[in-house]
Write a structure and sequence with these properties.
five-stranded mixed β-sheet, 33% helix, alpha/beta, two-stranded antiparallel ribbon
């Protein structure tokens, strides 16, 4: 399955976003083997920094650092995907300013909802940052009429256990991008959250997935 063929924004209703930076994972993957989904906030300012880009994309660099600090010794995003971990963003286009409006998060959450529906065997959802948490709560409210993650500071709420059906949900901090490189206290908490999450899935059950990318998006 190629995710970008199923998760499509046709009208781009969010006027305050950089639509030229719109990106949905183009990897070809067996959805039955995805057990953990990590959702960060927004597409990067440069598409060559997206998770599945060629070379040394920033999202991949900081994410790999986070996993290694959590005790998961890996050297590439394809290696993590091969262990059943899938990476995406809550908002699929690039930012025009420092923040992202609630209306944009809510609108794009429909795409994320469709994307999550492609992975029925996922056991864990990791919400990396406030935008991912808000987006997921919009999905939960539409489906179950209630939010999964309560309001409050992430450092306070992350110690509790949350579930969405049979899936464990972890609210955490953003691991993708330059802020991860400088905020050591958040790095420590991210590593703790990843360590808890990977214990739920069996990383030793490694079977190579069909991992390919469409490099044309990242020229």
């Amino acid at each position: 399955m190629q995710v970008s063929k199923y998760v499509i924004c046709e009208e781009f209703p969010c006027k305050k976003m950089k639509h030229a930076l719109h990106v949905v994972p183009t990897i070809k993957i067996n959805p039955e083997k995805v057990s953990l989904i990590m959702i960060s906030e927004v597409a990067p300012p440069k598409l060559e920094d997206y998770y599945y880009a060629k070379g040394e994309p920033l999202f991949a660099k900081t994410t790999l650092q986070a996993f290694n600090e959590a005790g998961v010794k890996v050297a590439s995003i394809p290696e993590l995907v091969g262990r059943g971990i899938y990476f995406t963003t809550a908002v699929k286009c690039g930012k025009t300013g420092a923040g992202i409006g609630i209306d944009i998060i809510k609108s794009c959450s429909w795409l994320l909802e469709k994307e999550l529906g492609l992975f029925p065997k996922a056991k864990v959802l990791m919400l990396m940052g406030d935008v991912a948490i808000k987006s997921f709560n919009y999905i939960a409210q539409r489906i179950d009429k209630k939010r999964v993650i309560p309001a409050g500071s992430t450092y306070k709420i992350r110690e509790q256990k949350y579930f969405w059906g049979d899936k464990r949900v972890f609210p955490s901090y953003l691991q993708a991008g330059p802020s991860f490189l400088i905020e050591k206290s958040k790095r420590r908490m991210i590593a703790e959250d990843i360590a808890k999450a990977v214990k739920i899935i069996d990383l030793k059950r490694v079977q190579a997935l069909d991992f390919k990318t469409d490099s044309s998006l990242f020229k």
